[in-house]
Design goal:
tt1808, chain A, six-stranded mixed beta sheet, globular, alpha+beta, 151 residues, single chain
Length: 151
């Protein structure tokens, strides 16, 4: 897998038939190692290890409904009251972060209403604070650390 612009971590890999699997500490099971999963696992460990987010507040691939369509969010961090706080969209490293990707995550966030939205392909990372009253996205210089969060 490609070297990413995120801290490295101790990961567990196993082979199952023709598939390569990586252990997901949040879901507590091995999952198929795709290029997007490689980015997601690195970003999860970045949130936990570098930004000090508790594992218990992070959810992976949770289902949501938008315009009667079932969608899955890549990652969502919740506050202590169980409300979405940070919505994260992960893409494989070879997938550029385009306006379409920004639109995708903002559509998901219309339902979830997380205060922050982040997009990463493991090489580039973008984060915005969302003001739902003005419908504006304010770019941030980085992902807020848990200690900075008003959770």
């Amino acid at each position: 897998m490609e070297t990413l612009n995120l801290p490295s971590f101790e990961y567990k890999i196993k082979h199952s038939d023709a598939n390569v699997m990586i252990f997901d500490a949040l879901r507590r099971k091995y999952v198929l190692l795709t290029p997007e999963e490689w980015v997601r696992q690195h970003f999860v460990h970045y949130l936990i290890g570098s930004l000090q987010y508790p594992k218990s507040l992070i959810s992976i691939e949770r289902g949501t409904t938008y315009n009667k369509l079932q969608k899955r969010t890549d990652m969502c961090v919740y506050d202590q009251q169980g409300k979405p706080y940070l919505l994260v969209e992960c893409k494989a490293a070879h997938v550029p972060i385009t306006q379409e990707v920004v639109r995708q995550v903002s559509v998901y966030n219309q339902v979830l209403q997380a205060r922050y939205v982040a997009i990463t392909n493991g090489l580039e990372h973008y984060c915005w604070e969302v003001n739902f009253e003005t419908r504006q996205f304010q770019p941030l210089p980085g992902i807020p650390a848990f200690s900075d969060a008003s959770l």
